[in-house]
Every structure is written in C-alpha cells, then in structure tokens.
Specification:
This protein has twelve helices and no strands. With about 250 residues, the chain is an all-alpha fold. The relative contact order is 0.07.
C-alpha cells in the first residue's frame, strides 16, 4: 500500500497534507472557514449603506419637522429593509435613494400617529413631485417585505383619518386654540356620523375651508387652505360641496 501511495504523481506546487488533514500556507494547516455566529456584525456594505441612510433620514425628518421618535422609527424600518436586501433583487434599482428614505418616514409617521401626505414627503426629496409614484410603490414593498418577515402579518401602520391632519394644517393656517378645537371636533363628528369616501387629507382640507368660510373676516381664503394642506383648490371645493350640507352637524 505504501508503495502505491509513493507512486502517486504529485502536482506541481502542491503541498503535502499533514496527518491532521488540512493545510495552510507554510504547511502549518489550513483552518476551516470561520462560522458566522449569531449576532455577528453586518456586512460592511450594509453597514456603510445604513450609516448613509440614517444620516439622510435624519436630515429629511428635520426638513419635515418630525419628532425624534418618528426619526428613530424610520431608521429602524430602513435597517430592516437593508438586512433583507440580499434575499431578493435590490428594491431601489432605478430609483433615487431619497424615495426609499421618504417611504420609511411615511411608515414611521403612520406608526406614530402623525401621518404625512405623499406630497409633503415627495417635496422633501431631490426628485420633488415626480417621486410620489415611486414612494407609493416602495411603501407597498416595505409593508409586504416586513409583513412577510413578521410571519405574514401586515405592518401595524394604523389608519389615517382626517382628524390626524386638521390640527397640523389648521396651525399652518394660523388658527387659534379655540378654532383648532372646533375643526378637530368637526372631523371627529364627520368620522363617526358620515360616510365620506375621500382621502383624509382632502377631507381635512374641506373641513378647514368650511371653518374659513364661517369666519370671512379672518383674512384667509381657499388659496391659503390649498397652500397649507397641499391639496388642490378644485379638490377642496369638491370636498366642501360634499360636506357643506352637514355644516350644522359638524360645527353646530
């Protein structure tokens, strides 16, 4: 047997195996490839992308005037998406990174009960209004990916209501505490007693315009409501026409 082993040809540059089985450079033995341990540091590319993404999210959140809790929640959503990106095709292919950050912020705002509209988020990106469609697609993808990771459960991002917008929009219109209380109560009554099938931001704008019409001397107009809410004037008029027959219910 030994004679047969001696007769085996040796390839040029080969290193003989020691009795233990594996080798390394210099004949000391090659250690087996390291096993990835649970809790190991993330891949350098993911870590680098995460750092850049966190900074971009923080800057975008500051531009939108968001609270620290919303900002941290958005970073958490982004981190989870980065951890998943190696399992499928990269989700921002052909899209600006800003759209992903905006989508993460949208989910965070919904989770924290302080929603922002697509128009507000798009305005905070480099692509502006053109980013709205991609932001919407990425929000759907985030919900699907993270919902799947959570055992198929949809992400708990809450239901957006008109009352979630009226206070902030009203403050932008310069409404005082009493008037803000009135529009909040109007939004609450509408949600409880009426079946209004419009986007909550346009419904909120319609309620605010009703409040403006009730105080004609306050120096506010349809245009002011449109600028404060980001809702088109024609859309506000349509919501107003639908709500105005119920003015006594809402503001009485």
């Amino acid at each position: 047997m030994q004679a047969e082993e001696a007769a085996l040809p040796r390839m040029r540059g080969a290193v003989p195996l020691p009795a233990g089985g594996t080798t390394t450079e210099g004949g000391r033995g090659l250690a087996p490839p390291p096993t990835t341990m649970r809790g190991a540091a993330p891949h350098p590319e993911i870590k680098a992308a995460g750092g850049d993404g966190y900074q971009a999210i923080a800057a975008m959140a500051d531009r939108l005037g968001l609270a620290a809790g919303v900002r941290e929640r958005a970073k958490d959503v982004f981190r989870k998406m980065e951890e998943l990106r190696g399992k499928t095709h990269y989700y921002t292919k052909g899209r600006s990174g800003d759209t992903l950050y905006a989508a993460c912020i949208y989910v965070a705002c919904r989770s924290e009960g302080t929603p922002r509209t697509f128009k507000e988020l798009a305005a905070a990106t480099r692509d502006g209004a053109a980013a709205r469609k991609d932001i919407g697609k990425l929000i759907t993808l985030i919900r699907r990916r993270l919902g799947d990771e959570a055992g198929g459960r949809a992400m708990d991002i809450g239901v957006v209501r008109a009352r979630d917008y009226v206070e902030r929009f009203g403050a932008l219109l310069g409404m005082g505490e009493q008037e803000l209380g009135e529009v909040l109560e109007a939004a609450r009554r509408m949600e409880e007693r009426l079946d209004v099938r419009r986007n909550p931001d346009s419904t909120a704008a319609g309620i605010l315009y009703m409040a403006v019409e009730r105080r004609p001397g306050a120096g506010r107009s349809l245009r002011h409501v449109s600028v404060a809410t980001g809702v088109a004037e024609n859309t506000i008029k349509q919501a107003y026409r639908e709500l105005s027959p119920h003015a006594e219910l809402l503001f009485g």
